[in-house]
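Next up, sample data.

:::
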Amino acid sequence: MDKRQGFTLIELLVVIAIIALLMGILMPALRMVREQARRQSCASRIRQQLLAIIMYAGENDSKLPLPEMGGNWLQDVAVNTVHFMLKSGMTREMFYCPSNMNHQKYNDLFWMYANKTWNQQLNRFENESNFIVSGYCFIWQTTGNDRPEIVRYQNDDTRKIWVKTTQEKQSGSRELCIDSIMGVPQSNAKYGRNFGQVPGGIWGESQVYDRTSHLKSDEEPAGGNIGFLDGHVEWRTFDPDVENGIAVPRFGNTPGFFW
């Protein structure tokens, strides 16, 4: 009669310890792979938005859909522009970075902000004079030409501008659609700002924070995809100027926008 011996408690504990060790080694690598995939998907969405905007300009004497009313944040996109972009082949999900968990989890709050009524059959908002809160920022001028000059960092090679038309010079270096990177002042943070909990209009209504995409932590963005006027997209590591321990934004302060 064969005697079969099972695992001892010590052997089971050793196996569990080995599995835990392997998981500890593999999980960071797995998270990195997932984030790389999200970055690629994000870049694809930005390309689609660039194409839609360029198509809009092609039908409007090379002029971009400059904001004239509604929100002042760089993610605010007028409803009539949204409708054109949807007709060009974009979908609702393309307006939001897959790396931004708040924009994914609470998407209705951002998409419906200031509109409230969406006609599913017509694929249209009922209020034409308002805007959505997109997951991406747009570096275009207002119709009143009243945006302040963009801050130029020490390592910048070219002067940055608010884009108005597709006929701008140096189109390959003119940023147009970018990942949302924004932060509010916070003492004792790495860059003197909190990038993961940004209170805006949605916070006032629903206590949901806006949030930077591609975060290492609430105190440190990894960087963002940058879409240029000529249609190409590049990844840019977060590297702002820092003064007195606080990261200097390109635009605004509460929140400050970075790219």
User: Anything to note?
Assistant: The chain is about 30% helix and 20% strand.
